Amino acid sequence: MPNVDLDDLLFIQGSDELVDFFKDKDNLLIVMGKGFDPRSCKIIETLSNNDVIFNVLLVDYNEQLTTGDSAKEKSRSEKNFKEFQKLCESIPYEELQVPSYKSENDSKRLLVISESVRSAFKKSLIENYDHILLDFSALPRAVAFSIAKHLWDTKEEHQKLYLLACENSEYDDYIIPKINEGTAEFLQGFNAFAMTMESENDETIWFPFLGDNEQAAFDIISKYLKPIEICPVVPFPSKNIKRSEVLLRKYGQKLFKEQNIEKRNIIYVPECQPLLNAKKLINTVKYYERALNFDNNRHIHYAFSAHSSKLMDIGLLLSVMTLLQHGRKVGIVVVDNKGYEVEKDNSYEKQKDELYCVCLDYSKFI
After folding, report:
1. How far apart are the C-alpha atoms of 92 and 149, rounded to whole Å?
2. What is the 3-state secondary structure (H, E, C) of 111-135?
3. How far apart are CA 223 and CA 217, in angstroms?
4. Is 185 exposed, middle or buried (0-12, 13-18, 19+ CB in 10 A)?
5. What confidence score (pLDDT) does residue 170 get?
6. 3-state SS of 263-311?
7. Is 6 exposed, middle or buried (0-12, 13-18, 19+ CB in 10 A)?
8. Which of 49, 160, 263, 362 could connect to 10 by a Cys-Cys bridge, CB 3.0–4.6 Å?
9. 161 pairs with which residues across the strands?
């Protein structure tokens, strides 16, 4: 895996800045998801309206929904796809199917997402492009993580990779994931085998990124990991100044009574600064290494889980990729997700969307 140096990355915030950065660049490919999220078309709409030339690879991750609300979710996806087709009337695009996998008895979907991404993402899909923009906005988290890692590992040295997200934290609060009860695994492709507990001296420290409506996933992962320490990550400062307080209240019973964690374990990270998030998490892991260095027989593993915004997901991904390249036993744990509900059909306010981008290869521009 090529090295990720956080000091060499460029962070771009806002539509105008994004347009200014890409308007004079050639051979752009936008990799984006096909789904229910109304923010899915924001990035291509912004760039196309400002005469930025690009092609699109539309990823359709087949969730095979079987829930009662699947028809409503399918309707939202179809509406977004019609908007996408309208925007892409003069933009070349290719649709890529990334299938989900199921066990033989169909009772539990196996979390081999990285394998399906590697199978679907042939190198020929990206070889003719100099700039590859991965839009997290409408991709399931585990799929976005797997695609980002695969692109970073397989792209040529001259190719530049960007991670983008359209943020609207108020709308995020209305999205309710449908969790497949009792399923959690480490995401393949991120040191999953190294995270296997091999002896009684192997122990796990867990960094869950807390988010609204994710308490069920929190419980499942907690039972799966059985961590010796939990360091909840909450957004502060945030667009909503009370967001961290609200989240800690919602998780208060689980954190402070059931898990008995200390309040000093809480990690506050700025909601809209993924590079700072990553640095703070990396420094926390280094702190634990120093603190636990007195006992060489202890083998500490560091687990991360994402339950917050897509922009904070990028910060989590950068921290994990950086720690991996320095030989730490670190992984991303995910739960099986059957789909989503949206609490209020009219909850999306487009004017509150904000665009963000992290350029992973910025040092190669200068």
Report:
1. 25
2. CCHHHHHHHHCCHHHCCCCCEEEEE
3. 10
4. buried
5. 83
6. HHHCEEECCCCHHHHHHHHHHHHHHHHHHCCCCCCCEEEEEEEECCCHH
7. middle
8. 362
9. 132
Rg (CA), the chain: 20
Inter-residue contact 322 to 306 (CB < 8 Å)? no
- Percent residues over pLDDT 70 in the chain: 87
* Most confident region among 54-68, 88-102, 303-317, 336-350 by mean pLDDT: 303-317
d(CA 105, CA 237): 46
For 20, the token pair is 């200014």
Going by their DSSP bridges, the two strands 175-186 and 330-342 should be labelled as antiparallel
Confidence of residue 198 (pLDDT cuts 50, 70, 90): low
Exposed e or buried b per residue across 225-258, where buried means at least 16 C-beta atoms within 10 angstroms of its C-beta: bebebbbbbbbbebeeeebbeebbebbeebbeee
Q: What predicted TM-score, i.e. pTM, was given to this entire model?
A: 0.91
Number of Cβ atoms within 10 Å of the Cβ of 89: 7
Q: What is the torsion angle, in degrees rounded to the nearest 10, for the CA atoms of residue 355, residue 356, residue 361 and residue 366?
A: 80
Beta-bridged to residue 60, according to DSSP, are 97
User: In the structure encoding, which two tokens stand for residue 270, read together?
Assistant: 């700025």
Res. 112 pLDDT band, cuts 50 70 90: low
Give CA–CA dist 182/43, Å, rounded: 35
Other C-beta atoms lying within 10 Å of the C-beta of residue 187: 26
pLDDT digits (tens, 9 = 90+) for 31-45: 999 988 889 999 999
pLDDT at 104 over 60: no
Q: Residue 278 pLDDT > 80, yes or no?
A: yes
Torsion angle (degrees, nearest 10) of CA 203, 209, 213, 219: 0
